[in-house]
What we know:
Layout: H1 8-19, E1 24-29, H2 36-43, E2 48-53, H3 60-75, H4 85-99, E3 105-110, H5 112-115, H6 122-132, E4 140-146, H7 149-157, E5 169-172, H8 178-187, H9 194-204, H10 208-211, H11 220-229, H12 238-246, H13 250-261, H14 269-276, H15 282-293, E6 297-300, E7 311-314, H16 317-326, H17 336-340, H18 344-360, H19 362-369, E8 376-383, E9 394-402, E10 406-412, H20 423-440, E11 445-451, E12 468-470
Parallel strand pairs: 1-4, 1-5, 2-3, 3-4, 10-11, 11-12
Antiparallel strand pairs: 6-7, 8-9, 9-10
Helix pairs in contact: 3-4, 4-6, 7-15, 9-16, 9-18, 12-13, 13-16, 16-18
Amino acid sequence: MEQIIGRITEQKLLSQLLQSPDAELLAIYGRRRVGKTFLIRNAYEKQLVFEFSGMHNASLKKQLSLFGQAMSKTTGLPISDPTTWIQAFDQLAAWLTPKIKKQKKVVFIDEFPWLHTPRSGFREAFEHFWNMWASKQKNLIVVICGSAAAWMIKNIVNNRGGLHNRVTRKIRLLPFNLMETEAFLKSRHVQLDRYQIIQLYMVMGGVPQYLKMINRGESITQTIEHICFSKDGFLKDEFNNLFLSLFNNAHEHIAVIKALAKKGNGLTRNEIIQQCKLKTGGGTTQLLDELRESGFIEPYIPFGKNSKNRLYKLIDEYSLFYVKFIQNEKNNGPNSGFLFANSPSWISWSGIAFENICLKHVYQLKVALGISAVLSQHYVWRTPKTENNHETGAQIDLIIDRNDHCMNICEIKFSKTQYEITQKYSMELQNKLHQFQNHSQTHKTLFLTLITTYGIKNISQYQGQIPCHLSMDALFN
């Protein structure tokens, strides 16, 4: 069995299912290339007796033929291709019956949504298979897996038909966090310091399949060059393929992603509708839910606002990098990665990308601040420039609103070296605190918190103003 990096909670759940006295139906979902299949195959290496995967855009006849081939390979016997999914699951049940008499065994159906083609009857046949036979087999675990996360949630987890409340366990598999990314790279003998790992994460996130493309002995700039900008780079054409494989009417999903990539502070639902020329109503709500469940966007409620004012932010690192740099044809020449490394657009993107990473690692920041046991909510905050009261406008990257009558007002700065606070920046920080207190009317104690890559060079001069400061090491907790 190959080593599984991270996934501690998921591994614990998978192990518990083996001890269960009942039949178990596990739904696992998450974006493409995040490691769902790898996790199941390796966690259940000794118990997995049958595996079958759907094929994207294949006909019913082709899918059934693939099922017949999988049965023949598994049994070692010539099996005729089933003509319907009812027949296919009857074949599977007949073969499984003697196999599960004494020990727990696992059946794994991968890319489940791709099997439910129009008028195929696949989902209905699977419902019948589970309800009438599989759910009664105490030594059986059925794992159904899909990259189309929104489809899995709507049609399986929240099913209102034959599978209503039938899923016994679910796993939403997310990309690696920074700690897991570091461990994964070390397992592959890729030696990078944490600053380079963060740069890498800003480009491709913690998607295991992307991280496998990194060559040992290359700098981050070399890596980005050959993966993103070379003629056959793995991520050069991944963007469209990724969305087309996940969503129907993917052009609308892509339009939303591109609109959010241009607005680092996020967009409201109405702004997304206007910019992308979408229709108001349930269709847009479903589209946004699909992107959120698939891990591409995240809604944030600004401090002091309600859910109607939520902002949607693009949190998928690769999508942001693709829209900013890769998609532009004039950027796709030789040495594009090297040319961008110190450009103003690269520096601007770095700040936004690092801020998004910090928002994804709020729990790690709370651990570093010693407040992980304190109940809290986190927010972003923006106030526009106003003419009447002469305020210049301000924004706060992250607010950790704590139940112990305190708040951490977090500023996030990405830099190549230790960050040096200037007198001008010190005054900007004071203005932000003043405006926030004025607008929020909060009575809580405010702790100004600076999050940087290498720490603060002249923090001794500003200890009174900035009582809390963290370096990038805090993100690797």
